[in-house]
Design brief:
Blueprint: H1 2-6, H2 22-57, H3 60-71, H4 76-86
Helix pairs in contact: 3-4
Length: 87
Protein backbone atom coordinates (compact mmCIF):
# COMPACT_ATOMS: atom_id res chain seq x y z
CA UNK A 1 0.00 0.00 0.00
CA UNK A 2 2.97 2.30 0.29
CA UNK A 3 3.02 2.62 -3.49
CA UNK A 4 -0.36 4.43 -3.33
CA UNK A 5 1.18 7.10 -1.14
CA UNK A 6 4.23 7.51 -3.30
CA UNK A 7 2.24 7.53 -6.54
CA UNK A 8 0.18 10.50 -5.31
CA UNK A 9 -2.95 8.48 -4.61
CA UNK A 10 -2.78 8.67 -0.85
CA UNK A 11 -3.95 11.44 1.44
CA UNK A 12 -0.47 12.83 1.67
CA UNK A 13 0.13 12.95 -2.07
CA UNK A 14 -0.30 15.77 -4.54
CA UNK A 15 -4.01 14.99 -4.96
CA UNK A 16 -4.70 15.69 -1.32
CA UNK A 17 -7.88 14.64 0.47
CA UNK A 18 -10.33 16.22 -1.98
CA UNK A 19 -8.69 15.35 -5.23
CA UNK A 20 -8.47 18.97 -6.45
CA UNK A 21 -7.72 22.23 -4.72
CA UNK A 22 -10.92 23.94 -3.46
CA UNK A 23 -9.81 27.23 -5.03
CA UNK A 24 -9.74 25.52 -8.42
CA UNK A 25 -13.33 24.34 -7.91
CA UNK A 26 -14.33 27.89 -6.98
CA UNK A 27 -12.66 29.25 -10.12
CA UNK A 28 -14.40 26.65 -12.29
CA UNK A 29 -17.74 27.50 -10.68
CA UNK A 30 -17.26 31.24 -11.25
CA UNK A 31 -16.25 30.61 -14.87
CA UNK A 32 -19.30 28.41 -15.39
CA UNK A 33 -21.63 31.09 -13.97
CA UNK A 34 -20.08 33.72 -16.26
CA UNK A 35 -20.49 31.50 -19.33
CA UNK A 36 -24.14 30.75 -18.49
CA UNK A 37 -24.82 34.45 -17.92
CA UNK A 38 -23.29 35.39 -21.28
CA UNK A 39 -25.26 32.70 -23.11
CA UNK A 40 -28.53 33.90 -21.55
CA UNK A 41 -27.77 37.54 -22.39
CA UNK A 42 -26.88 36.73 -25.99
CA UNK A 43 -29.99 34.60 -26.44
CA UNK A 44 -32.22 37.32 -25.01
CA UNK A 45 -30.66 40.01 -27.18
CA UNK A 46 -31.06 37.89 -30.27
CA UNK A 47 -34.64 36.95 -29.49
CA UNK A 48 -35.65 40.47 -28.51
CA UNK A 49 -33.92 42.00 -31.52
CA UNK A 50 -35.68 39.54 -33.82
CA UNK A 51 -39.01 40.32 -32.19
CA UNK A 52 -38.46 44.07 -32.65
CA UNK A 53 -37.61 43.54 -36.32
CA UNK A 54 -40.75 41.47 -36.88
CA UNK A 55 -42.90 44.08 -35.14
CA UNK A 56 -41.38 46.87 -37.22
CA UNK A 57 -41.80 44.96 -40.46
CA UNK A 58 -45.45 44.19 -39.71
CA UNK A 59 -46.39 47.73 -38.61
CA UNK A 60 -48.93 49.55 -40.80
CA UNK A 61 -46.55 52.51 -41.21
CA UNK A 62 -43.81 50.27 -42.61
CA UNK A 63 -46.27 48.59 -44.98
CA UNK A 64 -47.35 51.97 -46.35
CA UNK A 65 -43.73 53.09 -46.65
CA UNK A 66 -42.80 49.88 -48.48
CA UNK A 67 -45.72 50.35 -50.88
CA UNK A 68 -44.75 53.95 -51.61
CA UNK A 69 -41.16 52.91 -52.30
CA UNK A 70 -42.30 50.04 -54.52
CA UNK A 71 -44.56 52.36 -56.53
CA UNK A 72 -41.68 54.80 -57.03
CA UNK A 73 -43.32 57.65 -55.12
CA UNK A 74 -40.20 58.10 -52.99
CA UNK A 75 -36.53 57.46 -53.70
CA UNK A 76 -34.13 55.29 -51.69
CA UNK A 77 -32.78 58.19 -49.62
CA UNK A 78 -36.28 59.30 -48.60
CA UNK A 79 -37.22 55.68 -47.90
CA UNK A 80 -34.23 55.14 -45.59
CA UNK A 81 -34.85 58.45 -43.79
CA UNK A 82 -38.56 57.71 -43.23
CA UNK A 83 -37.72 54.19 -42.10
CA UNK A 84 -35.36 55.63 -39.46
CA UNK A 85 -38.07 58.10 -38.41
CA UNK A 86 -40.57 55.28 -37.90
CA UNK A 87 -38.22 53.46 -35.60
Amino acid sequence: MAWLYYNNWGLGGAWGAGGVCPMLWAAVLVLLVIIIFLVVVLINRGVLAGKARRELASSPAMQILDERYAKGEIDKQQYEQMKEDIR
